[in-house]
Amino acid sequence: MAVDVALFELVSTTGEALPPFAAGSHIEVLTPGGLIRHYSLCNDPEDSLRYQIAILKEEKGRGGSRAMHETVEVGSEISISEPKNHFPLAHSAQSSLLFAGGIGITPLLCMAERLSAIDHPFALHYCTRSAERTAFRERIAASLYAEHAHLHFDDGAPDQKANLEELLRAQGAGVHLYTCGPKGFMDAVLSTARRNGWTEDQLHYEFFSAEPVKLDSDGSFEIQLASSGRVIPVAPNQTAVSALRAEGVDVPTSCEQGVCGTCLTRVLDGEPDHRDLYLSADEQAANDQFLPCCSRAKSTRLVLDL
């Protein structure tokens, strides 16, 4: 595949067809060691007998990717969720631009293959550190859409590097942008697009990770459980979800960075301090839900639908 990237093919233990999915979908994987991780599906959605996921081994991660690389082998049985899709293709788009950074290629590869299959105009720009670290390079080169795919290497010649200002000049309302990759890469793509007049309706993105949650300068607040009226204090050095767990309130989590949405909880009263990368700006402004793994409170108390 590529340096530190492994491709996993998953099939049902009974040989039956797997639940259907669309381009942009992901599954939750219970990795060896008990961590739940989200991985994008990167095979053809028409192939109902298998799922493919590509995983980058992260030495400084929390261990999920290492466990998959070092423990899972042919014949291993693992538990997964049904596919979920928070990053779908927009049916209203007249043409599409896909920007992938590193392992962020996985959902965009599936999108590119789907767009090619329905003869939808698009271009794929895939940015990596080097050719050796470019997953699916041979698959893209052999594809029917190879002429629409552009690879950009950090260690390559200057003229092949992605010029975001040029590539993201103002576009008509019918053009949609999709991006996935490291946070710094996505911040650059999205800020350039917004600066060039792209509207939020034209921008579609999915973060894989965020900066570690920092609590050093945070104040305390309270959480009230709507079901019982019970009040749980959240200390300055605690996340809301850890405070809830300490009091025996189980909130499902996965990434614990505000990226995946697993812990999304309804807010019935109070004002959250949103620090996630999952909710849209409009969803955050509504203040009726938040992610307790990373977000806090601007008000002294939040009443949660728990």
Q: What do you see in this structure?
A:
Helix content is 18%, strand content 26%. It has 306 residues and is an alpha/beta fold. The protein has three domains: 5-80, Elongation Factor Tu (Ef-tu), domain 3 (Beta Barrel); 95-207, 3-Layer(aba) Sandwich (Rossmann fold); 221-304, Beta-grasp domain (Ubiquitin-like (UB roll), Roll). The strands form five sheets. A five-stranded parallel beta sheet has the order 8-7-6-9-10, sandwiched between helices. It has a five-stranded mixed beta sheet with strand order 12-11-17-13-15. A three-stranded antiparallel beta sheet has the order 3-2-5, with no helix packed on it. The radius of gyration is 21 Å and the shape is globular. The mean pLDDT is 92. This is Flavodoxin reductases (Ferredoxin-NADPH reductases) family 1, Vanillate O-demethylase oxidoreductase. Keywords: 2Fe-2S, Flavoprotein, FMN, Iron, Iron-sulfur, Metal-binding, Methyltransferase, Oxidoreductase, Transferase. GO terms for molecular function: 2 iron, 2 sulfur cluster binding; metal ion binding; methyltransferase activity; oxidoreductase activity. InterPro entries: 2Fe-2S_ferredoxin-like_sf, 2Fe-2S_ferredoxin-type, 2Fe2S_fd_BS, Beta-grasp_dom_sf, DmmA-like_N, FAD-bd_FR_type, FNR_nucleotide-bd, MRET.
